[in-house]
Automatic annotation (TrEMBL):
Any single biological process term in GO: coenzyme A biosynthetic process
PANTHER family named in the record: BIFUNCTIONAL COENZYME A SYNTHASE-RELATED, DEPHOSPHO-COA KINASE-RELATED
Keywords: ATP-binding, Membrane, Nucleotide-binding, Transmembrane, Transmembrane helix
Protein's organism: Neopipo cinnamomea
GO molecular function: ATP binding; dephospho-CoA kinase activity
SUPFAM superfamilies to which the protein is assigned, alphabetical: P-loop containing nucleoside triphosphate hydrolases
Family in the record: Belongs to the CoaE family.
Pfam families for this protein: CoaE
Source organism phylogeny: Eukaryota, Metazoa, Chordata, Craniata, Vertebrata
Domain of life: Eukaryota
Designated name of the protein: Dephospho-CoA kinase domain-containing protein
Gene Ontology CC terms: cytoplasm
Length: 231
């Protein structure tokens, strides 16, 4: 059997976690990039040691873990430091993602959903996805949710939202959009429809294989990751 990858993304407070919860409930394999990003910098990891070497001990919390807020402040204002941090963490994140993708492949899953918050910002990854799903929310609803969730005033909420690529723009790049501007029930119905489509798209897959079109997506990703593993 073969397997394809589905990229899932959203914007701040657009409701991605609601969508992920429904997908998990339906039995989908979902890999959470944010969770992996936190795990690869735990104390005693390779990335943790490198981050300390370059950023110093002042970014540590009492318990030896990295203070994500302090590190976030540094890289927010200094692009070259952000690039440095990415060069340390990205290979480790990719390695762990590959491990999980291969695990699901061995378990016989036909597709894996990669929950990557900055999927559309790091355009390089989208070429490995057969489909990309954006959890969309109209700007007024997004702003209201963020203010409510994080206890922010309008100006602070707007600053956070405007630091990301607008959802309107990401909408044009996604193959599927789930509009989460309405109620939970409407969102849930859209996720069920998406799930049915992902399950159905397996039928087209056989047609494509018979036509001799090898699925390059997973092969390409494996190749890219193996290069990281070896280097």
């Amino acid at each position: 059997s073969t397997m394809f990858l589905v990229g899932l993304s959203g914007g701040i407070a657009s409701g991605k976690s609601t969508v992920v919860a429904v997908l998990r409930e339906l039995g989908c394999a979902v890999i959470d990039a944010d969770l992996i990003a936190r795990e690869v910098v735990q104390p005693h990891s390779k990335a943790h040691q490198q981050i300390l070497r370059y950023f110093g001990t002042e970014i540590l919390l009492e318990n030896g873990e990295i203070n994500r807020e302090a590190l976030g402040d540094i890289i927010f204002s200094q692009p070259e430091k952000r690039r440095l941090l990415n060069s340390i963490t990205h290979p480790e994140i990719l390695k762990e993602m590959l491990k999980q993708i291969l695990k699901y492949f061995v378990l016989g899953y036909h597709y894996v959903i990669l929950d990557i918050p900055l999927l559309f910002e790091t355009r390089g990854l989208t070429k490995f996805m057969r489909y990309t799903v954006l959890v969309y929310c109209d700007p007024p609803a997004q702003r209201a949710r963020l203010m409510r969730r994080n206890g922010l005033d309008a100006a602070a909420a707007d600053a956070r939202i405007s630091s990301q690529i607008p959802l309107e723009e990401k909408r044009q790049w996604a193959t599927h959009v789930i509009d989460n501007s309405g109620d939970r029930e409407s969102t849930r119905r859209q996720v069920l429809r998406l799930h049915a489509r992902l399950e159905d798209s397996l039928d087209f897959l056989w047609a494509r294989l018979v036509a001799g079109a090898a699925v390059a997506g997973l092969g390409g990703l494996v190749f890219l990751l193996l290069r990281h593993l070896i280097s």
